[in-house]
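TEACHING EXERCISE
Course module: macromolecular assemblies
Task: Read the component lines below, then compare them to the predicted structure of the full complex.
Student: A.B.
Group: 4
Components provided:
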Amino acid sequence: MGGNAIELTGAEIFAAPAAGQAIRRPSELFGEVEAFLCQEASLLDHHAYDDWLSLWLETGLYWIPSNSEDLDTNRCVSIVFERYGALEDRVFRLKDKRMHSQSPKSKLVRIVSNISAVASDDADILVQSNLVLGEVRGGQQQTLFGRATHRLIRSGEGLRIAGKKIYLIGNDAPMRNVTFLL
Amino acid sequence: MTSANRSTLKQSARAAQHPVGPNRRSEPHRVPDRLDATSHGYEIDDLRSLAPTGWVHSALYTDEKIFELEIERIFHSGWVFVGHESEISKKGEFKRRQIGRQPVIFVRGQDGEVRVLLNRCRHRGAVVCEVDEGRDTYFRCWYHGWTYSNSGELVSVSGPEGYGPSFDAKENGLTPAADVASYRGFVFAALKKQAVGLGEYLGGAAKVIDILVDAAPGGELTVRAGSNRTVYKGNWKQVGMDGYHPLFVHVSVLATWEREDKSGQNLGATHKANPFGFDAISETRDFGHGHTMLDFRKHRLIHAGHYRSLLEQTPGGSDYIEALYAEHESGWADLLLAMAGDPHVGIFPNLQLINNQIRIVNPLSVDETEVQMFPVLFARASTEINALRLRQHESFYGPAGSGSTDDAEIFERVQLGLQASVDPWINISRGMNREQVEADGTVVGHITDEVPQRGQMRQWLAMMTDSGVTGVL
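Instructor-supplied answer key:
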């Protein structure tokens, strides 16, 4: 893997597109972005891993920082800092019935809200949203709160995820397993 | 009122003439004496009967009274790991830590000295450090304004005229841990003065810690990469040093390792060859004092090529390899390279050096445990090598890693199962039929044997039942 981890830092992927402008309701683009986020949330809630993976560009970066909202990933640990290839492995394991921490699977509901977006054109969009995620597993309930950042790029088939960052506000406190996808 | 009660009252009246507490600094007087086992319903002989060699009674994992005794007799009585010196390399840097139930501050004072101070104002007891980490010249209690330097001295009392001439600020600094000692940057503290020094306590495990320290060029570790904090609903003694579980607990990860590595990002496998099989040549070791190791040395020396080629493809990797061989004789350098800085050792009761991380086990209650993981970087290695170490860590460890999460799941299943106590015994006898004892007393078994569990339990029993013991070999 070598230099791969530092080719493009999180800061670069999650920076606003050059000369970007805020997009708002009721624009068609904003509606498309909102629908995309809701569709993604639904796939995650229902453990539709392959469908979720198909939303990604094969160069994508999935990032859940640890300890703080932003950090230098070359010098600081994250909870997840994975390129698409590693994400494929994660999905491979999630589909393996012997991944004990998801046997049985978590029941999940997420609420995506407070969406704001900046676009340079309709093909490169940086989206911010807030997330409330409820999990019930083994009779225990936990609630996670976070801020998500999506970098969406338009490809032939529609919007695709070039990067997704989830800042959990509890990422500096002891955390129970987060083995489902965020 | 009985005469005994009257005399107690007289004593407290006398004590009141020293309005800010007894003038004794040598002993951290807030640490209670050892709890009397009988007051918890356990005679010492009962405790012995709960842990005969090869067996453990499930009460050790489920009984709150035993947990309270563990806190006093193990965490509040013996050596406990607090942090690494590089975490507070600058004057005034501090970290908030825990020794059993006691909140402490791990801090480097203005004089450059590393200290472990109880995080408690000497006036009315509020914590004086309310953040996890930082850098400052003083700690102030915001209840009434008492202010302490970052070396712990009481430097300012608001309204000092209210305390009279008998008040001595020197006697009212933040209470230091009774003993603090460091081995190659790893700082341990004890709330009671220790009869056994840290070097003697670590014993044969010290040489194994060197496998991590010497893997850093110049021996310079950097523990400043933040941490992953995880928590599971299970007893603290379940964490780690088990070489029998990976084929089952981590079966989905092993399956991932066998996938074609088309992305080149499959990082769980610093060493793809599996060291855990029933025919593996890896070993388990019990160094005494509860310090134990999953000893991959023989296995990894054979498979060293994979990590070497991973390094050689990484910018700075060849320089790194060169530095190891320049600093160490070639046999030791071969081993350092093969082990990739992973001693896989557990230092009783709360430190583990596993893969690329320092891990602190922090018991919260009889059935809840925090495990905090600090990736360790090499100060003089390239950014790319350190980034690789971080990515390797994240792929297996932490609250969303592929390995830690299945471990936590199984610990919780164990905790649930142990509630069924009709037949209360846990079997840790695996390998008793084939373990060997080396000349220095180290017990050695097969990687899948429960040599570490028995070693940890022997130390547990020694500390829980012998009032004077820091540890036994």
